[in-house]
Amino acid sequence: MPETKRLNFTPENTELAGKILREGGLVAIPTETVYGLAANAFNGEACARIFAAKGRPSDNPLIVHIASLDQWPALVAEVPEAAVRLAEAFWPGPLSIILPKSDKIPDQVSGGLDTVAVRMPSHPAAAAVIRAAGVPLAAPSANLSGSPSPTTAQHVLRDLQGRIDAVLDGGACEVGVESTVISLAGKTPRVLRPGGISVEQLRAVLGEVEVDEAVLHQLAPGQQAVSPGMKYKHYSPKTRIIIVKGSFAAFQKFVSNKKDCAALCFACEGEQLDIPFIEVGREHDSLSQAHRLFDALRRVDELGVSVAYARCPDTDGVGLAVLNRLLRAAAFTVVDLNGAAVIGLTGPTGAGKSTVADILQKKHAFAWIDADQTARSVTEKGSPLLPVLAEHFGADILDEAGALIRSKLAARAFASPEKTALLNQLTHPAVTERIFAQVARLSAAGTKAVLIDAAALYESKIDKLCAFTAVVTASEPVRLRRIMARDGLDEPAARLRMKAQLSAEDYEKNADVIVRNEPPFDVETEAEKIFERYKELTENE
Ligand code: TXA
Ligand code: MG
Predict the structure, then answer these.
(1) Relative to the CA of 94, which ligand 1 atom is closest?
(2) For the segment 199-249, what is each residue's pLDDT rounded down to a tens digit?
(3) What residue's CA is closest to ligand 1, atom 10?
(4) Whose CA is nearest to atom 29 of ligand 1?
């Protein structure tokens, strides 16, 4: 396709956009929520091109946009009374209403479902283009599938230049997050995606309104999403996002001095931090956060860090939509600073991590999670991870009963650095999730601090979820002797095992606290350094 035309919002360009759409083309248009990538909703082929341009999975249905109420009845089987009340209260505006579809809706629009989502946008440019086209317009957000929704024409062009006919530039979108999607196709009205219209506003009109579980929770593998869009990873920058719950003071201490990290924080907070930052609206002002969120998620990659810690938004009003988008951008990774302090404990093999963990457990009632044991537990028989591993590493890594043959997986996975990385990429999220479920249980039971004992703490990036990390070290000859005695290995075997890990220097370089476990140091005194650091972090809160 030739270059994408950028059209200013003028009467002539509105007519031109209408003409392109009538002829089966694709035009990105501004709406009050985000930019939409529009096509004639009655033209299945044109709608199919939307999926190709975005790289969108074809089972994810499109929202149909109308400019007047008289366009609605042709799209749906029937317009029930509850739908009329919603339209009266919130249209034109950021609300999409799902009803059983009419047979005029092509399968490409409904993604094979028997329902269709309709909304009447309030942005004058959107309304004008729909009128100019003379037909309802099917339009998903005008981004490449998986990346943050576009809130400016520049965002659209960055993703879709050369893939669509034109973009109508109407300036920055006011709301900034997509419309609320409510289904009236079931018994009780149900919010499938929170957005510009809040659940509280919907309840004021309809009474009982359910909020779908997928809004704030990750679907279990294999669990069916009511709204297909909820099952895909969304809104993700390349930078890893981690949501941090807690006060600003706790956040400030948590991120302080963290290397290779940035903050997504609220207005006036950034300059109080010692890491790079992007401010996303004002605290307790969800509207201002929604307005800034997607632009911030796009800009975060420019900071050149590997992790961005995001302050956690409130969940009332539009805040629910902000949190919903942020949770997806973060792949549901949340650190809760109101719970137990999480401390990473690592070190080269033979240095004596367990000794140190044991001391802190006895002396200060720190809890202790063995991450290596957790890693084994996620690949136990029946785990949803096993079929995924079999797909990538060969069906014969499972025995006849479906249990993992660990030696076979290890042989394949450690055959090359790429394969090792693939194994980590497939297993680490499940391991991390299980570890943090354990942390949540321990916090609920009143535990003040949890040590995560992981040999590959830094490689697995679990360190990024810890308040700080401690490395236990000892000199090489001492470690060698300990491994040989502990595991009954001869010297070459023990050396081989030591070589498979990070070097002692690399461990120490990453550490916030170094604990020396060999004479002349007293390990009890050394372990106390971890407790001191923990105390510093939790004081004055
Ligand atoms: O604000 C918005 O809604 C923007 C602007 C352009 O209007 N559009 C938008 O579309 O966000 P999209 O395609 O990015 O997101 C539509 C969401 C998806 O999660 C999709 O799965 C869901 O709505 N959806 C659409 N039709 C549905 C249906 N019939 N049943 C269930 N979910 C549906
Ligand atoms: Mg979208």
Answers:
(1) 1
(2) 999 999 999 999 999 999 887 655 667 777 766 667 778 899 999 999 999
(3) 140
(4) 116
Burial class from Cβ neighbours inside 10 Å (0-12, 13-18, 19+) for residue 375 reads buried
CA of 87 to the centre of ligand 1 (A): 17
- Shared domain for 257 and 402, answered yes or no, is no
Domain residues for the domain of 42 are 5-215
Which alpha helices (H) appear in 266-405, and where do they start and end?
Answer: 286-299, 319-329, 353-364, 371-377, 385-393
Q: What's the full length of the chain, in residues?
A: 541
Question: For 5-34, how does the pLDDT look when each residue is reduced to its tens digit (9 = 90+)?
Answer: 999 999 999 999 999 999 999 999 999 999
Beta partners for 169? 8
Supply the pLDDT for residue 233. 66
Task: Tell me: do 437 and 505 sit in the same domain.
Answer: yes
Instruction: Note whether residue 224 is domain-resident.
Output: no
Environment class of residue 536 by beta-carbon count within 10 Å: exposed (0-12), middle (13-18) or buried (19+)? exposed
Q: Count Cβ atoms within 10 A of the Cβ of residue 538 and give its class: 0-12 exposed, 13-18 middle, 19 or more buried.
A: middle
pLDDT of residue 73 exceeding 90, the answer is yes
Identity (one letter) of the amino acid at 469?
T
Q: Which helix (H) or strand (E) holds 155?
A: helix 153-160
Helices (H), 445-503: 476-487, 491-499
CA of 536 to the centre of ligand 1 (A): 47
- The DSSP bridge partners found for residue 183 are 98, 190
**Residue 226 confidence (pLDDT):** 76
pLDDT at 541: 56
Domain co-membership, 277 together with 326: yes
Residues 331 and 348 in one domain: no
Take atom 12 of ligand 1 and give the residue whose Cα is closest.
140
* Inside any domain, residue 227: no
Please state, in angstroms and rounded to a whole number, the distance separating the CA atoms of residues 52 and 217. 29
